[in-house]
Protein: ABC transporter ATP-binding protein
Organism: Paenibacillus sophorae
Amino acid sequence: MLQIFGLNKSFRIDGRSLPILDIPAWQVEKGEKVAITGPSGSGKSTLLHLISGIAVPDKGEIHLEGQPLHTMTEAQRDRLRSLHIGYVLQDFHLIPSLTASQNIEIAMGASMPAKRRKTLISEWLERVGLADRAKHMPSQLSRGQQQRVAIVRALVNNPPLLLADEPTGSLDWETADEISRLLLDLSSSGQQTLIVVTHDLNMAERFPKCLDIRELNRVRKHTEHQAGRGGAQEVSNG
Ligand code: ADP
Ligand code: MG
């Protein structure tokens, strides 16, 4: 489903180039559910931006469903993303002036007949326990309910890949746990590949596969050297 080779990404900050990601190789099989953990600033969001084609790497290859994302134009990447990827974010990003149902509908292709769209939305809201909330505005929903709407919006076109960036980051513990289970359940029944990045270890533990981004990424933050063994080894080797 996803293959990454020699991926490098730096950002220019104050005229200096700051390396963020250096991932020699990584792949995710179709249907896998992977949680990637790591501290704030370790490049988790940047990795998802690259996988989704929102950002481009400085070097390296990203193959999504056999297609070379790294060679595509922005327009081609946008198209690939709209067809293949659903994205769930920490802060839901629902449109405040639209109802739950309308927030889902805007993600759906205009080619689908309106009646079919309505039926599909009702079915989805039912599945996530929001059947009676279709006409509610986001402000009338709890944070957990808003995230459910955002998850439906990401899944309604049945994309093969679901990406989630800190999807439980602004939720209380209990709601976070519900949302984690919902993501796993829905992506299993839809056979989606699911990649979640989170610093929530409770969430990560629910996943069949869980890895720290630092296992993939060769860029090490100086704080790790100060705190960990890296610094001591450098001294004794020097
Ligand atoms: P995480 O999601 O793990 O918290 P990010 O991927 O958001 O980490 O960021 C990794 C590092 O890259 C951080 O130091 C952040 O400040 C920096 N960074 C992210 N995006 C940009 C950008 N557009 N310009 C400059 N620096 C950025
Ligand atoms: Mg982030």
